[in-house]
Records
---
Amino acid sequence: MVTTLDEKLESAYQEVLRRNPGEIEFHQAVREVLETLGPVLAKYPEFAEHKIIQRVCEPERQIIFRVPWQDDQGRVQINRGFRVEFNSALGPYKGGLRFHPSVYLGIIKFLGFEQIFKNALTGLPIGGGKGGSDFDPKGKSDSEIMRFCQSFMTELYRHLGEYTDVPAGDIGVGGRELGYLFGQYKRITNRYESGVLTGKGLSWGGSRVRTEATGYGTIFFADEMLKARGDRLEGKTCVVSGSGNVAIYAIEKATALGAKVIACSDSNGVIVDHDGLDLALIKQIKEVERRRISVYAQEKPSATYLENGNIWTIPCQIALPCATQNELNGKDAEMLVKNGCIAVAEGANMPTTPEGVRIFQDAGLAYGPAKAANAGGVATSALEMQQNASRDSWSFEYTEQRLHQIMIDIHRDCHETAAEFGAPGNYVVGANITGFVKVARSMLAMGLI
Ligand code: NAP
């Protein structure tokens, strides 16, 4: 079932389809936002009059570049780099870099589009952007990763700056990659400009809690959704997809709040451990040894490994998709509902297909969309920028407290806005409208930009 759009929104959507052929993830992300904006245009006709929707769907700037590098055998390799600077009405472009073979312009544009509204929700002064490459870091040596990152930054640096565009990590880009990228930026510009990248190491301008922030924030958001229903996370059984940065710290915080996480995954399979996942072992396998999650089952007798398994078939009360886009479809959603799932909070970006979202909403689950539920990562990036600007370094406790309060505030804003616009409990409506209105008002105030 596809929700119909009102006339003005439908024509804006058709224009997006026509101007961006083949970019299906971007179309999906735009449609999801437009489906919720009908009541906004009715309340604020000036947004339609000034073509804010059409403007917001068109990136301010799109950069595509060649990334040549040499592998360990001395062979020349060529990848494609992207940076989409989508919207700077609220602050410098801000959003991560993704290195994954599936990356093309449509993926970067969907992520950049989502980022605009997510960043607005944090209440911090950051615009929206995203970038990356079709480079696959899997199986590459550290030297190859370094040469690739240096070549990538040799082109990208001219578009960056602490007041212009501030990248961070995403899939395939963690502390190691950010180190090489920052080193090359510093070398080319001859400036120690800490605020140009976030997710930096603690000894060179990084913020405490940034590594943990997206996963922790997703759990804080899930807990708020449950509290709004007179319930809480403590004692619940959870399933977390993925075993990367977001998944690991979602597992950590869920466990700390008294939930039991029984499964996680990677793109090859799923591990299930009904004793509750051993996080120290997962960190050792994924963060230190950079191996596959199947190793967990070899080390733990209580665990089973399901090669090519579907994690959403495992009964749980809370589902936390933390891997990638469209990893949870309509059938998976039906299965989760049937098995007694009561809440879904998205650590990954757009992990649930539109059909899956409708099934969750029709079944009355607490469904926290990515824009709201995973905003803790970028919020803490903005806190890193604050620390860099004041040449300060905050404690773990203080930074986590700031993150926690931001997630509480995002939940409250989404909850209140959803009720105001006649859709109580609908966090998709709440998140899209709260984020969009902030951006639209700022764009109007700045004239024709
Ligand atoms: P990451 O550290 O690279 O981890 C990604 C994880 O997802 C890996 O375990 C990966 O498994 C798994 N994965 C990827 N594609 C998969 C697929 N098709 N099926 C099953 N598993 C798959 O990346 P991350 O930073 O955790 O990002 C995960 C998600 O969170 C992404 O959607 C990202 O955009 C979103 N996000 C991240 C942040 C952040 O601060 N890092 C902030 C907001 C949102 P393999 O190793 O097998 O590929």
Note: The chain has three domains: 7-56, 61-192, 213-373.
---
Amino acid sequence: MSIVDLPLLPLGRGNDSNSERGVDCPGDLPPASDPDLVARAQAAKDALGGRVFVLGHHYQRDEVIQFADVTGDSFKLAREAAARPDAEYIVFCGVHFMAESADILTGDSQQVVLPDLAAGCSMADMAALSQVETAWEALADAGVQAQVVPVTYMNSSADIKAFCGRNGGVVCTSSNAETALSWAFEQRGPDTKVLFLPDQHLGRNTAVLQMGYSLDECVVWDPHRPNGGLTAEQLNDARMILWKGHCSVHGRFSPDVVDELRATIPGVQILVHPECQHEVVLKADLVGSTEFIIKTIEAAPAGSSWAIGTELNLVKRLADQHPDKHISFLDRTVCYCSTMNRIDLPHFVWAMESLVEGTVVNRIEVDEQTQAEALVALQRMLDLPGKTAKD
Ligand code: 13P
Ligand code: SF4
């Protein structure tokens, strides 16, 4: 196994700021025990004023999200970054692929900062460009490549987005996967196939549950097996070629717990993210992106009961914000997203105070060619017609 095939290097190793892999923090962090961290973060934010715009993904810790100028899912944050041409610095409280997308969508003079470079994403790491290029060649050898449109989930590295851009594909998020897939299936006539990267679950759930494709029309491409573990006949018969990747948080929710909770909490409604396994989503009452989950809980009547299958920081925050509703986490064994949690108050303070002193730390900068090609796929996404019900 080569190093690029490793799903995730142990956090804190290596020094590759262009990858999703964990890297060391180069600076002197304030200690987490410093009682003045909140005041220091606020003072730095006040000093920077309109020069800085802080974006916070919904899975961020409370201690960080309180300083976000805007919170959102990855789709909303991509749009918000693109809509802030005046901010000199974008401090991205989220993970590496999101900061890369922000860099691609913002102007050349704007600088994107990720407070801890170890905030990668294990799912994004499951599709390396070399593996995807190998798969693309294999699709040509099987005689199907001309029918295939690559679609990548936002949760992928910039070079995978660029691959999609130069091969007629598009980016999608959990808010617009159905719209993006509908667009993709129109691109090569009635026999169009989609290569969906890197989350097999979002791809399968969207194709089967929202678009009416059958499970038999979905095949899984395993990058660790010769020819993805698939025959030319299987590729020929498939409509959805799903990359064998998953989210290490959402992939752990199990259908058994859904049954258990239904038996123990009267009237409970199960609300899950589409990165969950198909078997979990099948048993759920509602499925949608983090924005959808938040809006659903906001609109729910007092006294209603919910079990939510998404990242724990968000579920805890929803429970705190809605004490009139009964909100539980869908599983006892699933925990926080460890890489989202890398962005803590000490890293935030360190990044912001460095900006005040005139030093840009942990800048995320995508090279020009990758930017240009990835922008094609991102812009196709931003130009998709309308909004889905899940947005
Ligand atoms: P969304 O922000 O698109 O809901 O995705 C969830 C996620 O896993 C982000 O890392
Ligand atoms: Fe990646 Fe899953 Fe964490 Fe999102 S929640 S950053 S997809 S590992």
Note: The pocket of iron/sulfur cluster (ligand 2) is lined by residues 59, 95, 121-123, 155, 247-249, 311, 337, 339-340 (CB under 6 Å).
---
Amino acid sequence: MKPVSLIQFLIEERRAGHINAELSLLIEVVARACKRIAVAVNKGALGGVLGNAGTDNVQGEAQKKLDVISNEILLEANAWGGHLAACASEEMEDPQPIPDMYPKGQHLLLFDPLDGSSNIDVNVSVGTIFSVLRCPDDVVEPKAEHFLQPGTTQLAAGYVVYGPATVLVLTFGHGTHEFTLDREVGSFVLSRRDLRIPEQTAEFAINMSNQRHWEAPMQRYVGELLAGKDGPRGKDFNMRWVASMVADVHRILTRGGVFFYPMDAKIAAKGGTGKLRLMYEANPMAFIVEQAGGAATTGRARILDVQPAALHQRVPVFLGSRQEIELATRYHVEADEAQG
Ligand code: FBP
């Protein structure tokens, strides 16, 4: 079969009426920026890009040099493209307006420029996650409040994994599709169309070191997985945890599985509402997973239905193979009902 490039695929999506020309060009700009990030990541120690930048981000986390480099690459590429009204990033407190010298577009772009920062210096897969929203028609200078739209309003979502291969996964709400970077040609080529996550799975991903801090329903659910075939589930489950959400989610899109970053007492003690960010981690991943037949909840509600209250808001994340996510969510809802 003749290879289908990302550009060709985007033209097909436009002809199918799934996207308009501006969104198609925006995705091209984001994909091109991620190719530049891939080059920086792949250089590793030889590029002098490992280690801390010596600065903290809006969330008070130490920024890695590659966090800052990736953020700048995405900002610079999207500033002059003419497809955006503004963008927002994990690495910046406020939205970044488009400089007046450049034309503005109808879209808002949110991104986590380099997800899995704790893995950068140890050469484990990291990634970029992005989400596209429509800028409200009457808004010229978008502010944070204009980004606070529920995940159901996303026009596009995607991530790029910088791993053994550089892979882009994308959805416009008409299925989820995978593209692999052909380094010789320098372009993304369609490698799998219409990814499907199996309804059932025997593989789960969670940071077990937080177990003692989890809520009772989470203790119960994971306890039953660990009890395996001798327990109420009657089958053995295997565990994986890369600690890069992009890599854990990509494994689930490839062979099924479930991923959890639940609320816990440690997070609550710091006044937190979760670990992962709603707008540029949970929402794009939930859109991608649902479009591949999976499910994504906060443990209580569908992630895509959450009405955002703040740009860097955090939420619990349960996503992956539908039947397991529905069971884990049911345990939490039933426990809440029992507590009345
Ligand atoms: P950032 O690296 O973008 O801050 O993302 C958060 C993250 O690294 C996720 O990719 C990953 O799933 C999780 O945190 C790992 O958490 P932990 O360090 O508790 O294992």
Note: The pocket of 1,6-di-O-phosphono-beta-D-fructofuranose is lined by residues 90, 112, 115-118, 207, 243-245 (CB under 6 Å).
